[in-house]
Amino acid sequence: MKREKKKKTHIPFRLNMLFLIVFLLFSLLILRLGLLQIVFGEDYKREIERTEDVIVNNPVPRGKMYDRNIKVIVDNEPLNAITYTRSQTTRAREMLETAEKLAQFITKEPDKIRERDRKDFWILKNPEEAEAKITNADRKKVTEGELEEKDLYKLQIERITDEEINSFTKDELEVLAIYREFSSGYALTPQIVKNRNVTEHEFATVSEHLDELPGVGITTDWDRTYSYGNTLKSVLGVVSSSEEGLPSEKLDYYLSLGYSRNDRVGKSYIEAQYENVLQGKKAKMKNVTDKAGNVVLSEVVSEGQRGNDLVLTLDMDLQLAIEEEIERKLIQSKALGNTKFLDRAFVVLIDPRTGEILTMAGKQYTRNKETRKHSITDFALGNITTSYTVGSSVKGATVLTGYQTKAIQPGQIINDTTMRIKNTPPKGSYTNMGPINDLTALKRSSNVYMFKTAIAIGKGNYVPNQPLNLKNPNAFLTIRNSFANFGLGVRTGIDLPNEMVGFKGVETNPGKLMDLAIGQYDTYTPMQLAQYVSTIANGGYRMKPHLVKEIRNSENSNDELGVILEEIRPTVLNKLDMKDSWINRIHEGFEKVAMEPGGTAYKYFAKKKLPYTVAAKTGTAEAFYDGPTKDKYNGLQKTTNLSIVGYAPAANPEVAFAVVVPWANQGKPELTLNKDLAVFAMDTYFELKQKRQEEGGTSSTVELKVDNSDDVIQKQAKVRLSQDND
């Protein structure tokens, strides 16, 4: 019998292969898990626990401003403030709920709410009604790519009716006003919700309920205060509000310096010019956030420090007294008649040895368009932003230019009689003075002497009743370049922005050259006049005028002034390329104007037997009214500009002055406002000086006299000699 073959089974083999595959897979899995835990475990753990450090800068109060006698001009007033800081994950609905709670504790005026704010708020408050404003056709367009998802919100905004956005109650509008402040801030950056008129009750109540108000906080904010009201307000400048933040025109500039968009910065003049000094070091807060953007830790990095302080060159006692006199004289003069265009006056006092501005006064007579009432406002800024023909005050520069160009010689005699040029009106002085020299020409303010000097500069030959031709085509340029060395017709270099240069006449005929020589063609600012006369007063050095005297540290916690960080030293812009004897001759002529009988300012100074000597030059310019109400009048309206420049004491000048009164007269009686203000300014200056010396205090100016030699002036003033010919 045949034995049957034993059948071989494949089951064990297949099972073994399956076990092997499973084993290998588990081995790979274990290897992978090991790799993840051992090699990448720490990385994944850090990713899960990942946090982000966000540095937030909190603003600090700005630096103060003092006058030269350490009287506070600009300070900071502390304000109770309520803030809101939203996290990176805060939703609009959460902000709305917090705003509704906060509205129960404070009042917030809805005066800044815009129409768009109302529409956004309506959508937030009425989500179902807002959703119903989107049609199926609108959604189909999104599906088909004709519209984007964000366009649906725009459609909702457009379809909200006036009735719907005007349906809010008073309480809802208050919530909206608060919500608006919440939503306008940046993540993790405190946003001011209210800092004006926060009552003690509101402040305390919010403080007690902070745990119910996520993101809401309390702090102390600040506001600029001005110890002297509107005095010099236009020069001191303004600071943006917390709502304004950074000015849009300088947004990128400030952001590049590390500012936040809602930071308050100086917007104009001293506040803007010295922003980097006044701003201070911000307090830094580090917020640690988790992966979801929630703040898990906050800590102070640095406390910050308020801005450093400025000590200005101004003497506020002197400034206030002169401003009051300008106001009084303007009101008094307006009552005399024939002064319908008179609306402003300027007085600048400056130390000719250092360029320190002691007084920068300007007032303007204005009329409110709504109330029709008149008032006098601060216009100190007009000293650098407005210019006028000033008349004979510039004749000192004309004579010196004549010496320098050899058009005339010191002591030269010229016959002052009416000049008659063919086909032009007669030109002359206010009276025929006959043969006079340069000193008498200054003393009595001869126009003809200056006319003939200008003709000589132009290499012309005057023959009565004949045409006048000039052989020197550069005569205008010669005179203007010379005037520029005194500061006339160029920027003075004052430490303020937006300084005006003035206007230069465009006609170049001989008659206009003669007008230029007597200050009746080009226009100059009051500050340029002050720099010009200071250049003569100090022996020929054009000093850069400046308003900031010192920068002081603000680290002291008390009200004491900090240490000096920087002292603004005198700066010479250029030196006149003229002989000392020539300049001394102008000194002599100017002194005759004020101190010798027959001088145009004699009866205002020397005749009153004042306890000081003065050198001066008066000016009267025939002008045309070009003021704010010129459109009311047809054609050019003739008027008269008044000016006077000078310095005192005449032999050793420590103060120089420039007074400009535009559009003063339109007939008789002629005003003497320029001379009256000059006398008052000098009287007040020397009275204050004597009073302070008797009290053992400091004088209103530096007592050290700057030597007029190049070596000494460079050593003591640390000057930089640089030509400034704009």
Automatic annotation (TrEMBL):
Q: A GO BP term, please? A: cell division
Q: Which pathway, metabolic or otherwise, does it act in?
A: Cell wall biogenesis; peptidoglycan biosynthesis
EC annotation? 3.4.16.4
Q: What region holds the Penicillin-binding protein transpeptidase domain?
A: 346-665
What the entry lists under PANTHER family is as follows: PEPTIDOGLYCAN D,D-TRANSPEPTIDASE (PTHR30627), PEPTIDOGLYCAN D,D-TRANSPEPTIDASE MRDA (PTHR30627:SF2)
Q: Which family does it belong to?
A: Belongs to the transpeptidase family.
Q: What is this protein called?
A: serine-type D-Ala-D-Ala carboxypeptidase
